[in-house]
Design brief:
Layout (H helix, E strand, L loop, with lengths): L2 E7 L7 H14 L4 E7 L11 H4 L3 E2 L5 E2 L2 H9 L8 E3 H13 L10 H14 L7 E6 L9 H13 L5 E8 L2 E2 L4 E2 L2 H12 L6 E6 L5 H11 L6 E5 L7 H8 L1 H8 L11 H11 L4 E8 L9 H14 L2 E8 L8 H4 L5 E4 L8 H13 L4 E4 L1 H13 L7 E2 L8 E5 L2 E3 L5 E3 L11 E9 L4 H6 L3 E8 L1 E3 L4 H6 L2 E6 L6 E6 L5 E4 L14 H11 L4
Parallel strand pairs: 1-6, 1-7, 2-5, 2-6, 7-10, 10-11, 12-13, 12-14, 14-15, 15-25, 16-17
Antiparallel strand pairs: 3-4, 8-9, 17-22, 18-19, 20-21, 20-23, 23-24, 24-25
């Protein structure tokens, strides 16, 4: 029997519902239960694929090719459970499906309404495509009181009644702020948030109270009294030094026990969190430090590169060093200032991205890394720009560029018009197609050249990695590059699409067309990030 846990948030956004959901899921796994986590997003975009990273943070891509919310990255990193298309839904997708059905006459002339049609679609999503999971945790995006989230709140209220109160539980993440002028923790915001939630027909069973300090027992009892929640189910969620401490903190606070007790399951089992303790120790007590310069164009929002940040951290955990990230806005870099700005970096990374803005600054950073033997890691766009840089400065193609930017003579990078999918069907695109969902998305195989640096890193000839790109390196120049020591060491199985590039006479210079950061986990760091941080450690200044 599958049990459902619904996680909502109140008072303010960004309280960590996704992290809380992922941490709880990990604890339940340690108790021996099979877990799945889902995200319900209230915005009207069909998916985050066409949204600015400044609006929504990074776009997380699943194996089966869905562009999803970044919280699914938390879910995978904390649980190891591979997310699917069916684990993320938006209001846009719900309404798109309903309108399509209405246009086809599938509602037989009925008036299409939020209740029951929208709420029924949401309820179907919650319980669809399950594989005998013991628990499904559903995080509701946004904050209680948001107009756009009301259909989702109503849907989970109905779901709770439809499936029996013993089979579903509500967790509300809220804020208990400290007011310095009065020297007090204030419970009133939490009370008002719960009042709002109860007015919508939902009584929370557990409260996770975010705070920057310990919440005294008296305040917790007060919250329980006024919010109609048992005081031992008012659980403090104190700011942690590392996100990887959160599962341990929740365990110490008894969150897993309260959940299991609610469902009349054995809550007395002692579980071993040695895995999380070791990860946290490596994060908090490293034996050294490396500085990694990240050259991007969304550097003002850390969430724009969330998975990348974590993957670099995982590489540091494996190598027992602290990874200090230095962010560089690509538009501010040029050939005259890279040496001064990047001088203290032990490694340079150019992440994925789109568009011409800032591309020349990234190319300048790549040239600096190549000429000064600094470890360089290019991901997706970072690989494409690395190839352009080497075409200009090694092959002498001064006009080398991407067709994304201009109609140049030497289009080193061009629009993908056709490729083979994982099920051996052919996908075709043109520059006139809609942007949403028109990229090479999801997990694809690549074949690595034996004896290459990247082959030695993976220790495997066939790899599977996740892609999100519309442009691809032009393979027709491969021989010219090879003659100059630029090796295309990985290709799609059909031998048509270059997937990896490396520089022969360089300590560590690798570009990949895919996004390895999406598959890295704290207890299983991705091999490329392990190797990259190890190379950065060896840099002697």
């Amino acid at each position: 029997m599958t049990r459902f846990i619904f996680v909502t948030g109140g008072v303010v956004s960004s309280l960590g519902k996704g992290l809380a959901s992922a941490s709880l899921a990990s604890l339940l796994q340690h108790h021996g239960y099979k877990v799945r986590i889902r995200k319900l997003d209230p915005y009207l975009n069909v998916d985050p694929g066409t949204m600015s990273p400044y609006q929504h943070g990074e776009v997380y891509v699943t194996d089966d090719g869905a562009e999803t919310d970044l919280d699914l990255g938390h879910y995978e990193r904390f649980t190891g459970v591979v997310s699917k298309k069916s684990d993320n839904i938006t209001s846009g997708r719900v309404y798109q499906k309903i309108i399509t059905r209405e246009r086809k006459g599938e509602y037989l002339g009925a008036t299409v309404q939020v209740i029951p049609h929208v709420t029924n679609e949401i309820k179907e999503f919650i319980s669809n495509d399950l594989e005998q999971e013991d628990f499904v945790i559903c995080e509701i995006g946004g904050t209680i009181g948001d107009i756009e989230s009301l259909p989702f709140i109503e849907a989970i209220r109905q779901f709770h009644n439809d499936n029996g109160h013993d089979n579903s539980l509500f967790i509300h993440v809220t804020l208990v702020p400290y007011i310095a002028s009065s020297g007090e923790l204030k419970t009133k915001p939490t009370q008002h948030s719960v009042k709002e939630l109860r007015s919508l027909g939902i009584q929370p069973n557990i409260l996770l109270c975010r705070s920057d300090r310990i919440i005294p027992e008296g305040e917790r009892k007060k919250i329980g009294l006024f919010c109609n929640v048992q005081h031992n189910c008012v659980i403090q969620a104190i700011n942690a030094n590392s996100i990887y401490e959160v599962p341990i903190n929740f365990y110490n606070e008894g969150l897993d026990k309260r959940v299991l007790e609610y469902f009349n399951l054995d809550a007395n089992k002692t579980i071993d969190l040695k895995m999380w303790s070791q990860v946290s120790k490596h994060v908090l007590e490293p034996e050294g430090k490396v500085v990694i310069g990240i050259v991007g164009k969304y550097t003002g929002l850390a969430d724009a590169y969330k998975s990348l940040n974590e993957a670099l951290s995982h590489g540091g955990i494996f190598n027992n060093v602290k990874v200090e990230l230095k962010w560089f806005e690509s538009e501010e870099l040029n050939s005259s200032n890279t040496s001064s700005l990047l001088a203290n970096c032990h490694g340079i990374l150019v992440p994925g991205g789109f568009g011409e803005r800032g591309s020349e600054g990234k190319i300048a950073a790549i040239k600096y890394a190549r000429e000064n033997n600094i470890p360089y890691f290019g991901i997706c766009f970072g690989m494409q720009l690395a190839v352009i840089e080497m075409a200009r400065n090694i092959l002498g193609m001064q006009d080398a560029n991407s067709s994304e930017f201009s109609n140049c003579t030497n289009s080193i990078v061009g629009l993908m018009t056709e490729w083979t999918t994982s099920d051996n069907t052919t996908e075709k695109r043109s520059k006139n197609d809609d942007l949403g969902g028109t990229m090479r998305l999801g997990s694809y195989e690549a074949k690595l050249r034996k004896g290459s640096k990247i082959y030695n890193i993976y220790k495997d000839e066939i790899i599977n990695e996740r892609h999100r790109h519309r442009y691809e390196v032009n393979n027709k120049f491969a021989e010219e590059f090879e003659n100059k020591g630029v090796i295309f060491s990985g290709y799609s199985p059909d031998g048509l699409l270059p997937e990896t590039v490396e520089l022969k006479d360089h300590p560590w210079f690798i570009g990949v067309q895919y996004h390895p950061e999406l598959k890295s986990k704290p207890f299983e760091p991705h091999p490329l990030f392990k190797s990259f941080i190890d190379a950065a450690k060896k840099i002697q200044r």
